[in-house]
Specification:
This protein has a 3-stranded antiparallel sheet with strand order 1-3-2. The protein folds into 2 domains: about 60 residues, Arc Repressor Mutant, subunit A (Orthogonal Bundle); about 140 residues, Four Helix Bundle (Hemerythrin (Met), subunit A) (Up-down Bundle), CATH 1.20.120. About 75% of the residues lie in helices and about 5% in strands. The chain is mainly alpha-helical.
């Protein structure tokens, strides 16, 4: 699982853990999430758990159906199309702004993440999860570096949804690993403050990611 952020509250930690388990398909598409079982597992009350469910629903990862319960969303082609269109434009903007505003420590963290990705060599599920963690961390630093908090809030839910689709479709670590070549190219553009180039590279990266998903669905 991705590293826990310092100062995270117990409730936030549970949210992050549940979100991760949904994204990585531990809780699969359409699977029911039972309140009593999760309350017991996490030692949490019904009210805070329902608040966590509401946030997961806002992020498009679960659906809460009155009288039927709560379940993980399944891959939906219309939602996938809409998510891709939005993510392409917003990620491009985030990369453009990051190239203009990134701080040295943020750049160093991006470089460290790509170095970590290069050391992940096998096609195991554990390595797929490692690459997913690295990919999400990389994108989240880009969002932070953009300096636009509203943009980050809008785009993070799209990132989580696309990552969940990746696991639901059943891609391999090898397929995921190919994405990091574009992130290396992006980092070079950001280092040189080439903001227009960074924007186009990020859009191309999202296009590539989306094409691979579509090819594995149809």
């Amino acid at each position: 699982m991705a590293d826990r952020e310092e100062g995270m509250s117990p409730k936030r930690e549970i949210y992050e853990n549940l979100r991760y388990r949904i994204i990585t398909n531990e809780f699969g598409a359409g699977q029911q999430l039972y309140e009593k079982a999760l309350m017991q597992e996490y030692q949490i009350g019904r009210t805070p758990l329902r608040e966590i469910f509401q946030e997961l629903q806002r992020n498009g990862l679960i659906e809460i159906i009155p009288k039927l319960g709560t379940r993980v969303v399944s891959l939906d082609m219309r939602t996938l199309r809409d998510t891709i269109q939005l993510r392409r434009e917003l990620e491009g903007l985030a990369a453009e702004l990051a190239a203009l505003h990134i701080e040295p420590d943020q750049f160093d963290r991006l470089r460290d993440l790509l170095q970590s990705a290069s050391k992940v060599k096998t096609n195991s599920m554990d390595d797929l999860k490692k690459l997913s963690d690295i990919d999400m961390a990389f994108h989240r630093i880009i969002y932070d570096a953009s300096g636009n908090r509203q943009l980050r809030e809008m785009i993070e839910s799209l990132l989580y949804k696309m990552s969940m689709y990746w696991f639901q479709v059943g891609f391999s670590a090898d397929e995921f690993r190919e994405q990091f070549n574009e992130l290396e190219e992006l980092l070079q553009a950001i280092e040189k403050r080439k903001y227009t180039e960074a924007k186009e590279i990020m859009k191309r990266h999202i296009d590539h990611f989306s094409t691979v998903i579509k090819e594995n669905i149809f």
